[in-house]
Structures are given as structure tokens and as C-alpha cells.
Design a protein that fits this description.
mainly beta; four-stranded antiparallel β-sheet; 39% strand
Amino acid sequence: MNKAGFVQKGETIDVTNSGSAAIGYGEIVSLNTRVGVAAAPIAVGEAGAVHVVGVFEFPKAAEAVTLGAAMYYDATNDVMTTVATGNVSAGWAVAAAASADADVKVKLG
């Protein structure tokens, strides 16, 4: 029988910055099919910790968000949105936000 070996809690993971610019503390990091948040600055070519668990407050698109709504990262506009098409899954809204609100609280995952 195959067995799994514990590696880590998984609240953060190490990600190598393969981009052309440094990643700043608190920046949204696309993980292809989901997002994380940089726990500290990550220089180009270096590995650094990225939060993949937790509730974070993000800038959002000018739209109303309901509690529990699925949230997606719109990399073009650098905001969270409820629009799935062309965007990366981020998690779900832990509080409602009016269309005029600048931010939304999102539980990653």
C-alpha cells in the first residue's frame, strides 16, 4: 500500500519568481489555476513564501459581491471579480461588498 509523507501544513508554499520584475510583499501571485499572496518580497529568480490559505482584503472590480460568491483574479485590471471567464480562481467572498466599495474580503482557495 502506498503511503503519503507529510511535507508541510500548506499555509504558505515556496514559489520561484520566474517573471521579469520583483514581487512585492502582499502582491497577488498567479499560481496558474489559483492565486496566492506574497508573504515577503521575492526577487527575480529567487524562491519565496506565498500565502495560499487565509482571508485577505483585495481591490475589486466595480460590481456588487454577495457573501459566498466565487471570486476570480482579473490580472489585466489587477482586481478581484465575480467573472470567471478569462480569470484565475481566487476563492470566495467572506462578506458582501457594494459595487461602490473599493475592496472585498476573500478566503483563498
